[in-house]
Amino acid sequence: NRHLISAGDLAKDDALLILDTAEELARVTERSIKKLPTLRGRTVVNLFFEDSTRTRISFEAAAKRLSADVINFSAKGSSVSKGESLKDTALTLEAMGADAVVIRHSASGAPHRLATWVRGSVVNAGDGTHEHPTQALLDAFSMRRRLGGLEGRKVTIVGDVLHSRVARSNVLLLHTLGAEVTLVAPPTLVPVSVGTWPCEVSYDLDAVLPKSDVVMMLRVQKERMNAAYFPSEREYSRRYGLDRDRFAKMPDDAIVMHPGPMNRGMEIAAEVADSARSTIVEQVANGVTIRMAVLYLLLGGESA
Ligand code: CP
């Protein structure tokens, strides 16, 4: 594949190749080799139309650790404010020599469109409520490192599924990798299309927790929320928040995940987020490694 747009485009062998390459890169960089020459002379453009901390910085760190040149573009402060279109913005950046464009955009489908306009590789860094494939890859990598394997593992994804590109990408990738996924959410925050997703749906978090190897909490996306979908923060937290009592219902060796940014005290209690069984900080570190693997596999072959 020349692009990475959907986790659903990855066959099991593709996904395992990315995870195994990341494992190899982690071994190399853990031996304190900070920078590899692999992508010297290549240019990666980070094209961010929506805010990001983890994804933008980790793609930048990943590209730099592979010796690529990095151009960071954010819509704020650019000619997008004068009405320049995505296509013209992309063609402008390509004229400056982009071998890969990493795009985050509020419109679902923007990376797919972009791939028809530019010659370089397109990597989806989150498009609207659609997908966030490198998040799913770093989550699978984090699970594999903690649990040893994904085949038959029970992964529970909890919260604002309706607005979550992380949930969709995780369901698709985890299914490919042989895990069993259950989504838990208020009925108003379950997408109507969920019947076609390869997972189970439950509305009873307390019943699902004791059977989970992984509990992944999602951020409540207040910025995309219609008030009609959402009870109150207190009611949400009471029914779907991972507090100390619910955490105690999980098996002793089960792990807690969150893609970040977190609403501490709402979907997850601070003491759960900071516990030894939380992988939240590891997920961020693994994000750099996974993005190195993705850039390496997309660009590392032939020279420009
Ligand atoms: N998990 C994630 O995508 O975080 P950012 O929005 O900070 O990139």
UniProtKB/TrEMBL annotation:
Subunit: Heterododecamer (2C3:3R2) of six catalytic PyrB chains organized as two trimers (C3), and six regulatory PyrI chains organized as three dimers (R2).
Binding sites annotated in the UniProt record for L-aspartate: 82, 165, 219
Domain of life: Bacteria
Name of the molecule in the record: Aspartate carbamoyltransferase
GO molecular function, one term: amino acid binding
Catalytic activity: carbamoyl phosphate + L-aspartate = N-carbamoyl-L-aspartate + phosphate + H(+)
Positions of the Aspartate/ornithine carbamoyltransferase Asp/Orn-binding domain: 151-298
Organism: Nonomuraea polychroma
